[in-house]
Amino acid sequence: METVVFLISAAVILSGALGVILSNNPVHSALFMVQTLFGVAVLFVLLEATFLAAIQVIVYAGAIVILFVFVITLLGVDRAEDLRVEPISGQRPLAVVLGVSIFGIILTVLIAAVGSPTVIQEANIPIGDAADNTKLLGETLFSKQVFSVELTALLLTVAVVGAVVLSTRPKGLLISTLEEQGDDVLDDDLEETGKE
């Protein structure tokens, strides 16, 4: 049964990851990311890490991705762009080289985790009871690391406020001011050409 759940979850994760990469619409990519995160949460449940599964769904799928969708739609980057125009020359070949390099590193880590003749297998060491881990994590987060947790919350709030401020366009005030400045500059230019 575990193998079947793992295979279905792996298929959901891989199809979601491919959707994130191949989708032309950023909002659809964010929704495919939600699919991937739910698949990872199922894998956490399969590994009996229920706290991590809940965090995966609540924090990542429920908050972070919704924040992504909010910012994407607010900034209007879901409009179509011409993909043939390369803003930085050499960007695509460099991206291919970096992608292949990262894939090689991940493949090396996976081979090392499974165990090979060159690396000692240490990935499957038991870590203890899940209830103890959750209790210890909660105590650490809300006693020793409470400042870091609050600072992260403040940083996310400032990021959302900054995104809203950057995305709002001033309405009539800036346009009328620019028109007045344009008329003043035109009057100054006419006065200077008349003096010559």
Structure description:
The radius of gyration is 26 Å and the shape is extended. It contains 7 helices and no strands. The chain starts with a helix and ends with a helix. It has helices spanning 2-22, 26-46, 50-75, 91-114, 130-144, 146-167, 172-195.
Task: Summarize the helices and strands and which ones pair or pack.
Layout: H1 2-22, H2 26-46, H3 50-75, H4 91-114, H5 130-144, H6 146-167, H7 172-195
Helix pairs in contact: 1-2, 2-3, 3-6, 5-6
What structural category characterises the helix and strand content? mainly alpha
Q: What is CATH's topology name of the largest domain?
A: Four Helix Bundle (Hemerythrin (Met), subunit A)
Roughly what fraction of the amino acids lie in strands?
under 5%
Helical segment tally? 7
Encode the helix/strand succession as letters. HHHHHHH
Give the class-level CATH name of the largest domain: Mainly Alpha
Helix percentage range: over 70%
- What are the low-pLDDT stretches, counting only 5+ consecutive residues below 50? none
Whole-number count of domains: 3
Classified in CATH, the superfamily of the largest domain is NADH-ubiquinone/plastoquinone oxidoreductase chain 6, subunit NuoJ
Quickly give the CATH architecture of the largest domain.
Up-down Bundle
According to DSSP, the number of beta strands is: 0
Gross geometry? extended
Major sheet attributes? none
The average pLDDT score comes to: 75
Q: What is the CA-CA span between the terminal residues?
A: 91 Å
Which value, in Å, is the CA radius of gyration?
A: 26 Å
